[in-house]
Amino acid sequence: MANTQEIVSVLTESRVFPPPEDFSRRAHIRSMQDYQRLWDEAAKDPDKYWGDRAREELYWKEPFQTVLDWKPPHARWFVEGKTNLAYNCLDRHLPKLKDKPAILFEGEPGDRRAITYGELSQQVNRLANGLKSLGVKKGDRVGIYLPMVPEAAVAMLACARLGAVHSVVFGGFSAEALQDRMKDAGAKVLLTADGGWRKGAVVPLMKNVEAALPNAPSIEKVIVLTRTGDGKLPEGPKFVAWDALVKGQSDTCEPEWVESEHPLFILYTSGSTGKPKGVLHTTAGYAVNASLTTRWVFDLRDDDVYWCTADVGWVTGHTYVVYGPLMNGVTTIIYEGAPTQPGPDRFWDIIERYKATILYTAPTAIRAFMRLGDGPVKQHDLSSLRLLGSVGEPINPEAWMWYRDVIGGGRCPIVDTWWQTETGGIMVSPLPGATPTKPGSATFPLPGIHAEILDRDGKRVPKGQGGLLFVTKPWPSMLRTVYGDPERYVNTYFSELPGMYFTGDGARTDADGYVWLMGRVDDVVNVAGHRLGTAEVESALVAHPKVSEAAVVGRPDDLKGTALVAFVTLKQGNAPSEALKKELAVHVGKEIGAIARPDEIRFAEGLPKTRSGKIMRRLLRDVAAGKQSSQDTTTLEDLNVLAALRQTDE
Ligand code: WTA
């Protein structure tokens, strides 16, 4: 991990944008004084603050007795309480919102469906009853590998209704990635589709599932939604058609009232080893913060048409496409496909037609649109928008300004929201009616969130200086463990400074106390908004028969934020060639998914190592970025190796 002295900030940004007055007037939190008051209350008496929030946000079948039981690093929140998240997303709204659209769906080919809260509730209950008929019960793990269609939300909610633990796998992941995750989770049932639409082509989900099944022995049944094909199922007793399963099922299903700490989902995410971690979230704490942060950060109103463009395969899709918006009873847009299909204006077309009021997307998408110029945006009336959000990586001020001026017409506040799979919900973000924003800064921690920038000894770093971002006190939506590997939970997150959650990010505060995220300090990279572990890509590469060793690092990239550069040494008897580069890229795509394909592969005679044999990644990062290294190279095993790597630059 990086030394804090090495986290050097180069950004200087002095523009400040106060919230528009008419926005503040109607906002949930209207001023910095209000924010500060909430922050102070939460800091002074966290039990009262979170206890009050929990009672306000959720319906409790049985009240909790204890707000927090904290035995570092293990937290239990809202102990003895019982609730059900599907009930909180659906049933409790029905008296008022039965006919209100919950989901406005648009498929990539242009098919459209509006699903009301009443209809969504019926679909969830039918599927829950169908799952029950297959023997799914409380605590069972259920895999979900679906395109961005409403059934993905239906599947998640049906699991939550039964107390089954869902594990969603992003549809862009390969058969290998799917099988590893299903095996690790011990999933009993997998919900999938024949395919999904992306860039005018079919993503072959079913084919991947068939390839994964022989190595995922826990899966007893595969439920197949027809999305792209003719409804024909693969041969074999494991396959059940979604339609046939739900047909004739009752549209009521008594929710399973689960205890607060009952597991809700496992979501695999990259870390600094080759094996993704199963981040485990539990029910009530996650739900309280998902509901609260969605309402405050997006300043929700009843008539909002809210669009978060994330895929349900990532945590943003869990918290801000499905659970947060539905708990708040708003209308949410789900779009299946690629942002530029069939033309560069698809997003703007959707916003205009549905009169979307809130758009929450990723910097990499914003930069891609920026490249396409203002033309496609100008063809559409985006005056319905009133708030913009950004997530996934630091947003560069230039993209922030374009987002504000061209998409937001200069009138919409931007919320740059910092959080992680592990935090369950937004942690550092402006509150749009209160916080004056600065382009590129996530501004301040939300009330109750103790995000602090410390050095390795746990001392606060002075303003302006880079440090490591920790969360020094527990919060309700924090991950509870790494599924099946409790030691890894402790080692990864709580071993830098005992009892404090280490985020893996570097950050600094400026003279006004604004938080500026500075990227990962571990071997995790954010490529085009997707979180990847360089070690995962390395282990995929060395699994290729011609590869001897591989080191993968990130290099700054204008579009993707970070691009992947792989340094590869070959086994004897193999010669470097362009064809082999292609072969390796395809191989990584097969092992993990297209998102993990290196942008550049460089063959090398050897990799720079310390005397103890550790690959010197920071040095390679400099080489990849074309920088002369300022690194101390005295521990290098072989300086010639470095010189040789540089030469491959030419
Ligand atoms: C990065 C996505 C800067 C960060 C919700 C974090 C950000 C990782 C921001 C988590 C932001 C996310 N500004 N960096 N607004 N949001 N990140 O788990 O490095 O896919 O650690 O969760 O994304 O990625 P994950």
Automatic annotation (TrEMBL):
Entry's family note: Belongs to the ATP-dependent AMP-binding enzyme family.
InterPro entries the UniProt entry points to: Ac_CoA_lig, ACAS_N, AMP-bd_C, AMP-bd_C_sf, AMP-binding_CS, AMP-dep_synth/lig_dom, ANL_N_sf
Segments forming domain AMP-binding enzyme C-terminal: 536-614
Protein name: Acetyl-coenzyme A synthetase
Binding site for Mg(2+): 542, 544, 547
Domain Acetyl-coenzyme A synthetase N-terminal: 35-89
Residues at which CoA binds: 198-201, 316
Modified residues (N6-acetyllysine): 614
Domain AMP-dependent synthetase/ligase stretches: 92-475
